[in-house]
Design a protein that fits this description.
The complex is a heterodimer of chains A (515) and B (386). Chain A is an alpha/beta fold. Chain A is built from 17 helices and 24 strands. Chain B has 386 residues and is mainly α. The two termini of chain B are 19 Å apart. Classes of the chains: A alpha/beta (515), B mainly alpha (386).
């Protein structure tokens, strides 16, 4: 007997000019993990916003039946009351408040407006136990990592007696072990009869935990796959998402690798706040012309810190070591000097560090190299337009025109704007930090193609990524980083998930011996 | 029609403020029985409120960069006081004294800017301190008294008019000629930018709308010139204002430094990682503000013909209000010179209109505050709707 907890029927939601959802159907059974997948812009988040009341009843057509009753939610608090809780990709926790304060924010344990902190703390303790988080309830959110913050969000949802938990990309910013812990937790909830909807781009984890998978494409339901009946492979899911077979997830490339163009020696950097903490420790690496070099490592291994300290000392203090381009020592002590010396760094967090979201595509593309379109302090706007348009076409950025604000672009297109910006700066060495984070399969392929093209043009490309298949798929050579040190260098054929993990583990073992 | 509607809604902010200015002017014109637009009063309006425009230009850059400056009123008073001591007490040459005052303004701006940009003290706090410090130092300099009167050449800074080279007596032809020249230049620039937009395949507003817009602007300029010409002609201050507005309009829209200020205010971290020296740029916006505050101080001191300890009180609020009425965003990254100038004229017209009506300073404040709130309310409302 199938026991359906949620049924969304013929949901249609239009925004001015676009039909975001077109007769979408979704049916979730009690006590299952239901994955919702689709490319960016397929309508996953919109559907969940309809469900949770962010878009109130009346702003869409179709019906929502939850626990056998037809519902029309006015707002989030309304949907939470019946037990539908959504955890957004961007966590909604207040950094400078404690775990307890966050969990009961808006739902305070109070009598006549006076909070009973003892009760709140006790209940928090119980909730933390349930989600397997061993922290004091009085710890501030800012003092715990993203993985633990995610658990706090889940504990918060439990405090509201959740029946249906919606997680929007919960593992996007988590490392492997934190992701595992989170997925384990979902499986546990399943046993307790809590249903969950999991939105994720990581198809590996989807096929691992999901009981059924609904695929959305272009605002419409494509199919619902039942994982209990047959085995669903990643390729099967991808076919549904993009509407065709993806025989190759990584574009092919003929390698044409030349001499070394960039090298750093004995690169060391300290934490900006804790002057005695080495974040990057005696790193030596080099990149050759036309080569794509990967830096693998766990979250917090110092990869981003290394990249940013190279890029004009944008991170860290007391940075020492030397950098060479074509064998000549170069000055990387400020960002404008790094850019002038042909080094570019595309950040892992495009919204916070990569784009001026309130500005248009054109302004973002030219920002890092305005002098190229300027004569005597005055921007040559026609020339700027031509240049920006050329990049928009070359990278096929989907937009109405280049005067569109970047905030309105999808993740993949935003990332292309960031890449355009750095290509426009005409670097010889490009450092790409998580270049495909949070973007869909189709756009990922385009980004990989771009990376290949940059290498073909004779640039040296360094790719930092947490996704090992990606590193293995596009890089010619891989450095492995752990705890601020390079612990391995693997040429293309030696590199595999196992050999990379082995490098990391070896170091851990050696360190354990020292102690 | 769709097209027109969209172009209109794209520019709604700028046009709606312009419309609001016209409505306010018509309102006061009617309620004061036509006194507002009398040549004499119009000249006074410009002279009395020039400081708001000057300060708003500097404030715009500060606000777009994501900061605020509360000290401009005190800095203006301080600059006036220095001018008074130098010129009246020490009989220094007026031109030299003016340069000294502007330099002092720059110095004050660089000190405040240093604390804000490099030491990372929030601008609200750093300039609140500046507001108290320079008000206090003004009192120290003036020893609690007013200093004046000033020699004629210094007064000419605010009360002079451009000489009429045609010398026809009645109507000041030079003023009309200058008005005509400005109209032609503006139309030429607009035509050129329209052609450029067309060349690169961007949508342009329909021709008739374009013509109407330019006719209205030219008409307004010629009308204003005519009114001014039938009194004493073009005041020197208005020339200074015109030059400053053109300069800042150009800097904000066409130059590298302008573009970078907007990027800085839009996303400081992204701007920094794109090679923009965000600290130095922030410092520059405050140095600029200091110079303009000193200039505003000189102009009002010249106009009052004495330096007083109370001069410039509340100027910072007028300038900030003008900038926000003109559509600037309190979080930075958004705002235009055109908007800030319109905002300043709205404040000025209300100041002047209410004074003619004999509205007390108490009610003036309350009404100006309400206008600010309404303007920003519509701004936020429009943004949420789109």
């Amino acid at each position: 007997m199938s026991d359906v907890i949620l049924e969304m029927r013929n949901i249609t939601k239009t925004f001015p000019g676009v039909k975001a959802l077109d007769n979408v159907n979704l049916s979730v059974q009690r006590g299952e993990i239901h994955a919702l997948v689709g490319e960016n812009g397929a309508g996953k988040s919109t559907l969940m916003k309809v469900l949770s009341g962010v878009y109130p009843a009346g702003s869409y057509t179709g019906e929502i039946v939850f626990e056998g009753e037809e519902r029309s939610f006015k707002d989030i608090s309304h949907s939470e009351k019946v037990g539908i809780v959504i955890i957004h990709q961007e966590l909604a926790l207040i950094p400078l408040l404690s775990i307890t304060e966050n969990i009961f924010l808006g739902n305070e344990r109070a009598r006549y407006g006076v909070i009973d902190w003892n009760e709140a703390t006790m209940r928090t303790q119980a909730l933390l136990q349930k989600v397997g988080l061993h922290e004091s309830p009085n710890t501030l959110i800012t003092d715990i990592g993203v993985g633990k913050q995610q658990l706090v969000e889940i504990a918060k949802s439990l405090s509201k007696e959740v029946r249906l938990l919606i997680l929007d990309e919960p593992t996007a910013s988590l490392n492997e072990s934190d992701s595992d812990a989170l997925l384990q937790l979902l499986l546990q909830f399943k046993e307790q009869g809590i249903s969950s909807i999991l939105i994720s781009h990581k198809l590996g984890e989807v096929s691992r935990v999901a009981d059924s998978i609904t695929i959305l494409r272009d605002g419409a339901t494509i199919e619902t796959l039942d994982c209990r009946k047959d085995v669903i492979t990643e390729d099967r899911i991808i076919r549904g998402m993009v509407g065709r077979d993806m025989t190759h997830r990584f574009p092919a490339r003929t390698r044409n690798i030349g001499e070394t163009i960039f090298e750093i020696r004995d690169w060391t950097a300290y934490h900006p706040a804790h002057a005695d903490r080495k974040v990057v420790d005696q790193v030596n690496l080099h990149v050759r012309k036309g080569e794509v070099v990967g830096i693998a490592g766990l979250m917090g291994s110092g990869r981003t810190e290394l990249a940013m300290s190279i890029f004009g000392h944008a991170y860290g203090r007391n940075i020492s070591g030397t950098a060479y381009k074509h064998g000549q020592a170069i000055d990387l002590s400020s960002i404008d000097r790094a850019i002038a010396n042909g080094v570019a760094y595309a950040t892992e967090d495009r919204k916070t560090f990569g784009l001026v979201l309130i500005q248009d595509i054109k302004n973002n593309i030219t920002l890092a190299n305005l002098p190229a379109v300027t004569s005597r302090f005055v921007i040559n706007e026609p020339k700027e337009m031509v240049e920006a348009q050329a990049y928009q076409q070359r990278l096929s950025i989907k937009c109405s025109n280049i005067l569109q604000k970047t905030v309105n672009l999808s993740g993949g297109n935003q990332q292309k704007v960031v890449l355009s910006k750095w290509l426009f700066a005409e670097p010889e060495i490009l450092i790409l930090d998580e270049p495909t984070r949070g973007i869909d399969v189709g756009a990922k392929y385009e980004i990989y193609t771009l990376i290949n093209r940059m290498a073909d043009e004779g640039k040296g490309v360094i790719v930092i990524s947490s996704e090992l298949p990606e590193i293995l798929g596009i890089c010619d050579r891989v450095y492995v980083m752990n705890k601020g040190k390079l612990v391995g260098e693997l040429a293309g054929e030696e590199a595999s998930q196992e050999s990379i993990m082995k490098c990391i583990m070896n170091q851990e073992v050696t360190e354990a011996w020292k102690i | 029609m769709e097209n027109l509607k969209r172009i209109f809604s794209d520019n709604i902010r700028q046009y709606s403020m312009l419309i609001a200015l016209v409505v306010i002017m018509v309102f006061f014109q009617i309620i004061t029985d036509g006194a507002l637009m009398k040549p004499l009063n119009l000249t006074n309006l410009v002279l009395q409120n020039s400081y708001v425009v000057i300060l708003a230009l500097g404030m715009l850059l500060v606000i777009v960069a994501g900061n605020i400056d509360l000290s401009v009123g005190s800095v203006a008073a301080f600059s006036g006081a220095i001018a008074a001591v130098l010129i009246v007490n020490y009989k220094l040459n007026s031109a030299v004294a003016v340069l000294v005052c502007l330099a002092v303004g720059a110095l004050i701006g660089s000190m405040q800017g240093y604390f804000i940009a490099y030491i990372k003290i929030p601008s609200f706090i750093a300039t609140l301190a500046g507001m108290l410090i320079f008000r206090g130092l003004t009192l120290v300099l003036l020893r609690g008294q007013s200093i004046g009167p000033f020699p004629g050449e210094f007064q000419a800074l605010s009360s002079g008019f451009i000489p009429d080279i045609f010398g026809s007596g009645g109507l000041r032809i030079t003023t009309l000629v200058i008005g005509a020249i400005i109209s032609v230049i503006l139309i030429y620039l607009d035509v050129r930018s329209r052609q450029n937009q067309k060349k690169y395949g961007f949508e342009v507003m329909p021709l008739y709308f374009f013509l109407i817009k330019n006719l209205v602007i030219a008409g307004a300029i010629m009308g204003l010139s005519y009114l001014l010409a039938s009194y004493n002609g073009l005041p020197n201050v208005l020339i200074v204002l015109g030059v400053l507005i053109a300069l800042y309009g150009f800097v904000t829209t066409r130059t590298v430094i302008g573009r970078r200020v907007y990027a800085l205010g839009g996303n400081q971290k992204a701007a920094k990682l794109s090679g923009v020296n965000t600290e130095r740029l922030t410092l520059y916006t405050f140095i600029n503000m200091g110079i303009l505050a000193a200039m505003a101080g000189l102009i009002i001191t010249a106009r009052l013909n004495s330096a007083t300890a109370k001069a410039g009180t509340g100027f910072e609020l007028d300038a900030i209000a003008a900038t926000f009425i003109g559509g600037a965003s309190a979080t930075g990254g958004i705002g235009t010179v055109f908007g800030a100038v319109i905002g300043a004229f709205i404040m000025g017209t209300m100041n002047n209109g209410m004074s003619i009506l004999g509205v007390g300073i108490d009610w003036q404040q309350a009404i100006k505050g309400s206008v600010l709130l309404i303007a920003v309310f519509f701004d936020v409302y429009n943004k949420n709707k789109s």
